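Quick one:
INPUT:
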């Protein structure tokens, strides 16, 4: 049925019908509320797409790591024994850095906006992510660790990112000038 509804038929005037209009024709209704198209992908296709979203070694994380390494800092990655598995860990300093994607962690910026569709799904999902992030920071603080959250939207400006990271971490013994 999905394939049959995704090919485009022509209206009498020559314009192509939209998938939503094809569904309305198929269901023999003209009420748009009765014929919503939720997704153009099959369940397996959507699953594969969502599985391909990286959790480690993302582009913003790599930018942060490159800045840190260039500044002479040495660190550990994704420490499994700490709450939330921080992206970058400095065990001797007891400092941890989380690099969050603006969309997935609900940042208040242009990249962090919720989608317009399926708010009943995305609202609680992003809310749960934020609650988990807060809980992880609180647990690390209780263990005596300092934490910093770097947002995806902060990574393009490398100079500001350097200032943010170096202010948090303090002096490096090997910092290159």
């Amino acid at each position: 049925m999905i394939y049959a509804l995704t090919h485009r038929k022509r209206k009498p005037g020559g314009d192509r019908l939209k998938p939503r209009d094809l569904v309305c024709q198929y269901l023999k209704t003209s009420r748009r509320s009765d014929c919503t198209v939720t997704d153009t992908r099959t369940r397996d296709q959507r699953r594969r797409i969502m599985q391909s979203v990286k959790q480690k070694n993302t582009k913003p994380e790599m930018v942060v790591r490159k800045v840190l390494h260039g500044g002479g800092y040495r660190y550990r990655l994704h420490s499994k024994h700490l709450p939330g598995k921080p992206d970058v860990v400095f065990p001797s300093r007891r400092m941890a850095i989380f690099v969050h994607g603006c969309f997935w962690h609900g940042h208040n910026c242009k990249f962090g906006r919720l989608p317009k569709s399926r708010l009943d799904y995305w609202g609680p999902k992003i809310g749960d992510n934020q609650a988990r992030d807060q809980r992880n920071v609180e647990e690390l603080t209780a263990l005596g660790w300092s934490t910093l959250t770097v947002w995806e939207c902060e990574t393009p400006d490398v100079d500001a990112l350097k200032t943010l990271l170096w202010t948090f971490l303090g002096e490096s013994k090997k910092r290159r000038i």
